[in-house]
Design goal:
7-stranded parallel β-sheet, 12 strands, 5-stranded mixed β-sheet
């Protein structure tokens, strides 16, 4: 029997819980779960809780949680993805797939060729949207811990502050990814739709980043993180 799995943005424990309105609406009105249906909830702490629905009302759902389970372990490779800020669905796709592929931190990077500029209220809305994209990805892939999505920052600031044993910037003229030694913490810089300029690549190198390539073909900005993180997890992580 398939068990419906949901993220709850509140600390969970064994016992009865009234679910937040958004989750209650989705469970009761969209999925149409009823009393007795099994559910599995997680709060991002790394632990999961299994139970069942007690009551479904017009605007509320009450559940009881009677079993605590260990969550899906995180990869031993800590990945911080610096993703060039791109438009709409491309950025959503990058965040969704980076979450599925185990990135623990994601930072949107504002660089020279970015076509998107976010300020104030619009930036806050995009941050909330990206977090929801990551939550949905965790619900789908079975991940128990949410990645940290940092506010957009400049390329200069991120390359200066990123902490990792190995720092890589994707570049078509470089040594293959496989030539690097296994790190415990990896910072991966990927450019926006127009790519990083040569000056930006050099700027990153000046902050300790090494150029790396994934193959002979030039990948789109939303494809590059999927390939890069999959290869990194295969080489050094949990694939």
């Amino acid at each position: 029997m398939r068990v419906s799995r949901f993220f709850i943005d509140a600390a969970l424990s064994l016992g009865e819980h009234d679910l937040p309105e958004a989750q209650a609406h989705y469970i009761g009105r969209v999925l149409r779960l009823t009393a007795g249906d099994a559910v599995q909830l997680f709060d991002g702490s790394g632990q999961e809780f299994r139970g069942h629905v007690l009551e479904v009302g017009k605007k509320h759902v009450r559940v009881t949680l009677d079993q605590a389970l260990p969550g899906q372990p995180e990869s031993l490779l800590h990945i911080h993805l610096g993703q060039g800020l791109s438009r709409g669905e491309r950025m959503d796709w990058a965040i969704q797939k980076a979450t599925e592929l185990g990135a623990q931190e994601i930072t949107p990077i504002v660089s020279e060729r970015c076509e998107v500029r976010l300020k104030d209220e619009r930036a806050d809305k995009r941050m909330a949207h990206w977090r929801q994209v990551a939550i949905s990805a965790c619900e789908q892939c079975g991940r128990s811990t949410l990645p940290v999505i940092h506010p957009p920052t400049s390329l200069a600031d991120w390359t200066a502050s990123a902490e990792a044993d190995l720092k890589l910037v994707l570049h078509p003229v470089a040594e293959p990814l496989t030539t690097h030694e296994r790190p415990a913490r990896l910072a991966f810089l990927i450019g926006p739709e127009g790519g990083l300029s040569e000056a930006e690549v050099e700027q990153a190198k000046g902050k300790g980043f090494q150029a790396a390539r994934l193959g002979p073909r030039v990948l789109r900005t939303e494809t590059a993180p999927v390939v890069a993180l999959a290869v990194a997890q295969q080489l050094w992580g949990d694939f």
